Amino acid sequence: xxxxxxxxxxxxxxxxxxxxxxxxxxxxxxxxxxxxxxxxxxxxxxxxxxxxxxxxxxxxxxxxxxxxxxxxxxxxxxxxxxxxxxxxxxxxxxxxxxxxxxxxxxxxxxxxxxxxxxxxxxxxxxxxxxxxxxxxxxxxxxxxxxxxxxxxxxxxxxxxxxxxxxxxxxxxxxxxxxxxxxxxxxxxxxxxxxxxxxxxxxxxx
Length: 205
Description:
By secondary structure, the chain is α/β, with parallel strands linked by helices. Helix content is 45%, strand content 16%. The protein contains nine helices and nine strands. β6 (129-131) and β7 form a beta hairpin. The longest helix has 14 residues, at 71-84.
């Protein structure tokens, strides 16, 4: 979608790093919280995001990824957009059963040769290949596939998903908030990446 429409992908992590690197006032404030291992407050995050959305490359539109993550952030972002006179055209909700989402996280396998090579034992489209009875990278054939420790921490995954699937204050509550403000496109996330992408583009066309 980013390539098709020529829109910049706006990620909060990148915004934090850029502001910290440039030594902006907001970046310095954010760094204080990050250095203490604390979450950056919305009062800092939202203005930082808004500043980014007002840059020249965003004039024709933008894709915001990874924010908002809860209802409070959605409300703060909505108010900030209203004050800036900016319209939110679409909210994309990829719907996926919680159990399947958990399996997909735990099924990720990292290629030692290139971590950008997608391999997942629970997604048919990107399952690792098998050579001489051993799993190897489906892209390059590297025979060393590893897992991230946090991908196997079920308690941590359940905690993150507890926030995401919470319709009272969590991420899905944020989606519901925007249903009254813009068009929400609901996409079934169960198929493969290619099929999900095609379904999304079809709804946008």
